[in-house]
């Protein structure tokens, strides 16, 4: 059964809801671990004051018993801290609608959403109330993806796969290419500078660059503007053979790229060293195949662990670029959709940067896609069955070539 995540709820409504179906039985989950993972996306430099209000406490409504998944759909409810203040405005059964918001904020989903859900009235279109767009298009929804990602990370960990992420660019500051190249060639999580990453509240894997990046965030906050940037998310211990090239929709790189580009603010995503190495000649770019004992390995990982839409046994390495967040102070010019008159966008509380938080959401997205691919390839309704099948597959991959004695016996 494929993994399938559905989310619901408003940014300032009662709660955000996540329902994850297709989860096998036997995955151990603790409240403490789920809470720690959810806190990672909040406790970062550059977030808005709202992150100090939200605790991301959660309720589990189904799919978990005695600390283990049951095989039934997992249902999470994550309350919003300010729901009381917005209760009257967002009441689903309110007899009268408040005055609609009609001034789209540049760079947000406001304009596109208001036009998409426009009402036909006497042969003219009435743009939708922007509040109905912004409440759902808000990045607050990603808390549901984060909690679902924790479940999938547990599944992947059980079969020997680990996910990590880091920020390589914030505004104009970025890691030197040589250092970024070395990090993207890491073959295990321990090869990453874990101490520097843990100390950085921006997920920058370099102590000095992290300090400069924190200063850049403070500068942008003072100037009333925002910062974009880039991050890398990696999966180590990836089993070969996940995904397929048999149909375009089966290609795992396409599924992962789609997942990354679904994160609010992400405008580009790619794999391995394509960010710069696509300028090389073909002879210099390719990952050469070499024998490694009774198996094979790739001498480099420029393709980022995927060839032909299938994992090749090297770490999956994916990079993504985010635009600067739209909200500016003072607000940018816009047009009132009711009368066409120029106006300033509404002023609101906003983050300075969410690049580090997006990297954490990217971990969840990668976990969701790869966990689904593992279940697709190996099947099984209980984790113990899946683990056994993956272990057997790994053993067979480690002995691709027969020894001389085995050849002679044949």
Which features would summarize this protein structure in a list?
410 residues, alpha+beta, Chorismate synthase, AroC fold, 5-stranded antiparallel beta sheet, 4-stranded antiparallel beta sheet, 15 helices, 19 strands
Could you characterize the architecture of this molecule?
With 410 residues, the protein is α+β, with helices and mostly antiparallel strands. The protein has one domain (4-85, 137-389): Chorismate synthase, AroC fold (4-Layer Sandwich). Helix content is 35%, strand content 20%. The chain contains 15 helices and 19 strands. Helix 10 (252-261) runs antiparallel to helix 13 (355-378). The longest helix is centred in the last third of the chain and has 24 residues, at 355-378. The radius of gyration is 23 Å and the shape is globular. The model has no long low-confidence stretch (mean pLDDT 92).
Summarize the structure.
With 410 residues, the protein is an alpha+beta fold.
Task: Spell out the blueprint of helices and strands.
Layout: E1 4-9, E2 15-21, H1 31-40, H2 50-53, E3 59-62, E4 64-65, E5 68-69, E6 74-79, H3 83-86, H4 110-116, E7 119-121, E8 124-126, H5 130-137, H6 142-158, E9 162-170, E10 173-174, H7 177-184, H8 194-199, H9 207-223, E11 229-236, H10 252-261, E12 266-271, H11 274-277, H12 282-285, E13 289-292, E14 295-298, E15 306-307, E16 310-311, E17 316-322, E18 333-335, E19 342-344, H13 355-378, H14 383-398, H15 404-409
Antiparallel strand pairs: 1-2, 2-6, 3-6, 4-5, 7-8, 9-10, 9-11, 11-17, 12-17, 13-14, 15-16, 18-19
Helix pairs in contact: 1-6, 4-5, 6-13, 10-13
């Amino acid at each position: 059964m494929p993994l399938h995540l559905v989310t619901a709820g408003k940014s300032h409504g009662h709660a955000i809801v996540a329902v994850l179906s297709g989860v096998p039985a036997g995955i151990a989950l603790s409240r403490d671990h789920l809470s720690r993972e959810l806190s990672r996306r909040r406790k970062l430099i550059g977030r808005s004051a709202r992150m100090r209000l939200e605790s991301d406490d959660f309720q589990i409504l189904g799919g978990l018993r005695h600390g283990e998944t049951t095989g039934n759909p997992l249902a999470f409810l994550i309350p919003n801290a300010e729901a009381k203040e917005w209760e009257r405005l967002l009441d689903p059964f309110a007899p009268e609608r408040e005055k609609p918001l009609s001034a789209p904020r540049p760079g947000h989903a406001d304009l596109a959403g208001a036009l998409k859900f426009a009402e036909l009235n006497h042969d003219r279109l009435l743009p939708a109330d922007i509040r109905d767009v912004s409440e759902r298009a808000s990045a607050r929804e990603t808390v549901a993806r984060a909690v679902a990602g924790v479940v999938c990370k547990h599944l992947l960990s059980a079969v020997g796969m680990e996910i990590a992420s880091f920020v390589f660019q914030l505004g104009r500051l970025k890691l030197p290419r040589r250092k970024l190249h070395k990090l993207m060639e890491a073959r295990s999580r321990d090869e990453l500078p874990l101490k520097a990453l843990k100390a950085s509240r921006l997920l920058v894997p370099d102590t000095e660059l992290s300090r400069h990046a924190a200063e850049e965030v403070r500068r942008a906050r003072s100037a009333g503007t925002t910062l974009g940037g880039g991050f890398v998310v990696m999966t180590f211990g990836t089993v070969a053979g996940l995904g397929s090239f048999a149909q375009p929709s089966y290609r795992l790189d396409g599924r992962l790229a789609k997942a990354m580009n679904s994160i609010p603010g992400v405008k580009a995503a790619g794999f391995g060293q394509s960010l710069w190495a696509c300028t090389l000649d073909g002879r210099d770019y390719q990952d050469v195949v070499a024998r490694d004992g009774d198996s094979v390995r790739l001498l480099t990982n420029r393709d980022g662990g995927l060839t032909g839409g299938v994992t090749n046994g090297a770490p999956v390495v994916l990079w993504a670029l985010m635009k600067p967040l739209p909200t500016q102070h003072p607000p940018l010019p816009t047009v009132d959709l009711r009368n066409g008159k120029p106006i300033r966008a509404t002023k609101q509380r906003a983050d300075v940067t969410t690049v580090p938080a997006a990297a954490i959401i990217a971990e969840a997205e990668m976990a969701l896609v790869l966990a689904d691919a593992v279940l697709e390839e190996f099947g099984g309704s209980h984790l113990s069955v899946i683990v056994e099948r993956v272990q057997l597959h790994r053993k067979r991959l480690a002995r691709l070539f027969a020894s001389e004695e085995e050849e002679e016996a044949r």
